[in-house]
Amino acid sequence: MTVQSLIQSLENLETVHHDMMELSDLKKQAIMENNMDELVKLLNRESKGMKLIEQLERERVEAAYAFLHSVGVKSQLELTVTELARLVFDPDDKQKLLEVQARLSSVLQELKLKNELNQQLLQQSLEFIDFSLDMLTGKSSQEEAIYHHPSDRGGSTGRPGLFDTRA
Known about the structure:
By secondary structure, the protein is mainly alpha-helical. Helices cover about 75% and strands about 0% of the residues.
């Protein structure tokens, strides 16, 4: 097996990660619009994409081992793409391999940043929901931060419930 199959598997991974970046942008929009139905659909698509990435990653590992065997390395070492490039003797193939590695690395870094942003947006949404519920239920964080002896509260539980249990 040649280095071409390794390059092809890296290009396939790059393509799928580009698709994941598009999904990340769509997720950001769904989060900002509070469109939970769309977010669930996007998460399902993302899950399918992750399964495809796992499969492509296995193919990449197989292509790397096949390339190692084709150049006479019988070890099952887990070499990086940069280390594999040292074993490529054709300058054009070496250049292609290093270029696709750089592109994939860039896409992965950008995807990581987008996912971190989406995570922050979700966290802020949850904090806002928690704050809104606290405001609706009359919970005062300042009152709860101060210690009160249980006998001083006059038998109240401190935080009123959302439902009237006497009804």
